Each structure stands twice: as C-alpha cells, then as structure tokens.
Amino acid sequence: MAEQYDSEVLVRIENLKMYFPIMRGIIWSRQIGAIKAVDDVSFDINRGETLGVVGESGCGKSTTGRAILQLYRPTSGKVFFEDIELTAASPEELRALRPKMQMIFQDSYASLNPRHSVAKIIAEPLKIHGSADDLAVRNRVAELLDLVGLNPKHASRFVHEFSGGQRQRVNIARALALHPEFIVADEPISALDVSIQAQIVNLMQDLQDQLGLAYLFIAHDLSMVRHISHRVAVMYLGRIMELADRDSLFQQPLHPYTQSLHSAVPEPDPKKERRRRRFILEGDPPSPANPPSGCVFHTRCPLTSEDCVARVPEFREIRPGHFVACHVADDAGTSKIPEQMILDSAF
C-alpha cells in the first residue's frame, strides 16, 4: 500500500547517511574507512517554511543540503520531494525535478562564471530547461534582476563589476529563474558584511512571502538563523542534536550542545553580559572518520554518564514539536541540567 502523503510537507528526509570513503594505495587502492559526514538524519520541511541548520564547521550542514538535492548521492536513507523519492529517481527523473529545487551557494564569486555576463548567467537555466524564445528569456532576466533589487540595465555587466552583496543577489536571481518551490541556502551570508547580511536575509524573507518558497537555511550566525527561521535544527558531528521551533529553541534549549552555542553569542548590553553565565566547551570535535561510541557529544559534555558512552540517544519528542537526542533532557526542560549550565534568562 502506498504511503500516505502529507500535503503540508514539501521535503521529507528519513535516516539520511552520507559517508565518504577513505582510500589507501595508488594503483591497487582499497577502502580502509569512511568519513561519516551525515549519520542518520531525519526531518521534514513544510511548504513556505524556513528550517535553519546550525552547528560547528565540519558538522555536516552543507553535506546534508547537497545530499537532499542529490548533488551527492546518499550512502543510505530516503529523501522525498512531495511524494517523489529522490534517492530512487533516475538521472532523467531528477533532471525534470531540478526546476523545483535550487541552491544558493556560499561563495558568491566562485559560483558565478566570470567569463559570462549577468544576463547569460541568469538565462542559462532557462535555456537548459527548454525556454528557446530569446525575447521571453530577456524579459525574464530583467524581471528577476528587478525582483532581487538590481538594475536590469546592468545585465550586460560581468561578475567582477559587482560587490559581494550584489553577486549574491545574482545568485538568488539565478536560483529563482525556474520558479522553484524549495531552495537550499548554503551559508549565503557568511562572506558578507553585517549590514549586507541583513539586506540579503530581508530579501529572502520578502521573496518567501511573495513566492511561497521553502528554505533550508544553513548558517553559523545564530542571530540571523533566529531572525529568518521558523524551526531550527542543531547539528554536531553528522547528527541532529536538537530540533524545535525558533522560540522554543532559543528560550529554553534542552541539549547541552545547544546551550553552549547560545552561551557563545555576545550580549550587547554590558550589564546583562556581566550577569550571564557561560558554558564553554573544552577540547575539539572528534574526527568524523572515527566518531565516539554512544552519544557523539559525550567526549565534550560535562554531563556524560556510562549510558552516554554505551548507547546512542534516541531522537525523541520531549515536548510537542521539540525533539532532542540526549539521555539527560526530560519533559521538565532543565530539571537535570546543572545550574551552571542554565543560561541567563536575559539572553
């Protein structure tokens, strides 16, 4: 019997794994291990929703986004777009679905061809997917440039003639060319100045309201993630530690790792900053080629017990819509969290 499809869910990820082989030898190479970049990740993204993904560098955020779009073919697990299983789709089927799923890359310069004009860059997906009418293409390019806040008269310019923020607007215009429903934004603001970051985030929100887009928004900046996201997932060493709606995650984080990330965010008010208690992690994240047993966070967590070392914590719903992979957290929220780990309420 076919699985019932929830019309509100646009993208569904089930037990996604992305392992990269470690090879030894030049002529007679053989696999001696694997980098577990994404390890058993599951979540949904609803229509018109922004799901923010945060975590340290190397935790698997970008790999998750690329595996969802099948830029990397996952090692195992399933990815559904609407009711279509992308992980089982053929190259021809994926090509037909590409217009509905697009990506905004982090490096706004490297992701644009410096030999092409902006008009040619934006027109390329239109021509690849069958729009042969030159007049219609030119009109669509002008419409897209205006939509992202650029002057259509500048369509003949080349990439090096634009600032970083303008180049990212060109990236967004190209991603919108084929009327997508879902966009993976892979750290689209990390290389930009703070004032420009706010402009790009506000632009993405306006486009979401106008076009009904769904985003997977990958970033390091918690304040920006809080501003743009409806729900937030916290990743560590290839796994999701906590997933909740924005307000729940920021007002009462349950996982020790989430609390440590919150603690690292500076407080602009000096009085509140002096009162705030910090939770600073010691050591570095383990290698994804040899992750720890049990909970992958236990090597840096001050609450580690024998259970944490021996058993992988279940990713469970502690409160409605609030999921945590932790043996310590319970439905009381912070009843088992030591006082020194509880963040100041002013945060």
Q: Would you write up a description of this structure?
A:
Helices cover 30% and strands 24% of the residues. It is globular and about 65 Å long. By secondary structure, it is an alpha/beta fold. An eight-stranded mixed beta sheet has the order 6-7-8-3-9-10-12-11, sandwiched between helices. The N terminus and C terminus are likely disordered. α4 packs across α5. It has one domain: P-loop containing nucleotide triphosphate hydrolases (Rossmann fold, 3-Layer(aba) Sandwich). The longest helix is centred in the middle third of the chain and has 18 residues. It has eleven helices and twelve strands.
Name the helix and strand elements from N-terminus to C-terminus, one letter apiece: EEEHEEHEHHHEHEHEEHHHHEE
How helical, in percent, are the residues?
Answer: 25-40%
Major β-sheet profile: 8 strands, mixed
Give the beta-strand count.
12
CATH superfamily: P-loop containing nucleotide triphosphate hydrolases
CATH architecture classification name: 3-Layer(aba) Sandwich
Number of helices: 11
* Whole-number count of domains: 1
Average per-residue pLDDT, rounded, comes to: 88
Compute the separation of the termini in Å: 49 Å
Q: Output the structural class.
A: alpha/beta
Oligomer: single chain
CATH class: Alpha Beta
The Rg value, from CA coordinates, equals 22 Å
Question: Which strand order does the major sheet show?
Answer: 6-7-8-3-9-10-12-11
What is the overall silhouette?
globular
User: Unreliable segments (pLDDT under 50, ≥5 consecutive)?
Assistant: 1-5, 340-347
